[in-house]
Design brief:
single chain, 309 residues, alpha/beta, Rossmann fold, five-stranded mixed sheet, 19% strand, binds iron/sulfur cluster
């Protein structure tokens, strides 16, 4: 069988090991060297181009069904739980907590839940919106496991490495939010980032108010492609008197975007995190669709008040 292996960045160094195993079984094996951001980003074009019979995607659960022979191999990591007793003191004011993590630690969630319950907490594990597959699991673009239970809990607790995953959940919830970082051995209340990101978003909207032309980002990645939304945005922007063009890429290169000097703002329809995490990388404001709608609303208000665009 002709097999293409695809690994996320953090696991790419393990690719040869797996390739050799599969070769021993008589397979012809190739390794995707493209950047990989998630199961939203399957190497389907590469698979077709090299006529692979199967794509083996490591480290992520299925994002959505695709019409191709794809095998998903999860990669679980046992993170140290030594910080849990210390977290009890920090969480003492909150009786009911939600618990979230990433796919890498999802197998530990039940034990962590039991620990808190044994120590008198009520723990609610929410369900994701659908791209994430397990209760309590969050993705950068699926924070349902926290947002769906926001009203029922006194605080949210994220267990896992880094700020990428908790940030999305933080920005879409309202309760005190704690990150237990087992690899850096720290527990942090991250509520302050809500205001920082709200101000950043407001700043982008204000900067885009004078934009006369926008470039709308459409990714060809299987789980990020949203031409329907791009067409709605284009239509609304043009009706508001703006020039609007759709820009297509697999992975957006910010240097290339910055070379498109004709655009005064960019609007993202690809991975929703691009317009949150990458806003410092473009010379013009990089807006989400909702932020553009706010720009158009404010522009319409200004036209109503001052009578010109
Ligand atoms: S956050 Fe972005 S990169 Fe991650 S799974 Fe969602 S769409 Fe893909």
């Amino acid at each position: 069988m002709r097999i293409l292996l695809q690994f996320p960045e953090g696991l790419k160094q393990k690719a040869s090991e797996y390739a050799k195993e599969l070769e021993k079984e008589g397979n012809e094996v190739f390794i995707s060297a493209s950047p990989t951001f998630g199961a939203c980003d399957l190497a389907l074009d590469e698979m077709r181009n090299i006529k692979a019979d199967k794509l083996v995607h490591f480290g992520h659960a299925e994002f959505h069904h695709v019409d191709a022979n794809v095998e998903y191999i999860p990669y679980y990591i046992d993170a140290p739980t030594a910080l849990l007793p210390e977290s009890l003191d920090i969480l003492k004011a909150y009786n009911t907590i939600s618990l979230i993590t990433t796919i890498q630690h999802i197998h530990q969630l039940e034990a962590i839940k039991r620990f808190y319950e044994d120590n008198g907490k009520k723990v609610i594990i929410g369900k994701p919106y659908g791209f994430a597959k397990h209760p309590g699991q969050v993705l950068g673009c699926d924070i349902g496991s926290a947002a769906n239970v926001d009203k029922q809990v006194d605080a949210h607790v994220y267990f896992g490495g880094g700020m990428f995953h908790p940030l999305g959940a933080l920005l879409n919830t309202s309760k005190p939010f704690f990150v237990i970082e087992p690899f850096e051995n720290k527990i942090e209340n991250v509520d302050k980032y809500r205001e920082i990101y709200r101000k950043r978003s407001r700043g982008k909207i204000m900067r885009a108010l004078n934009a006369r032309s926008i470039g709308i980002l459409v990714s060809t990645k299987n789980g990020q492609h949203n031409m329907g939304l791009a067409n709605i945005i284009k239509d609304k922007a043009r009706k508001a008197g703006m020039d609007a063009q759709v820009l297509v890429a697999n992975t957006f290169d910010f240097m290339s975007l910055n070379n498109m000097l004709q655009f005064d703002a960019f609007v993202n329809t690809a991975c929703p995190r691009i317009s949150i995490d990458d806003t410092d990388r473009t010379r013009a404001p990089l807006l989400s669709a909702n932020e553009l709608m706010e720009v158009l609303r404010m522009k319409a208000e200004m036209v109503a008040l001052h009578g010109k665009r």
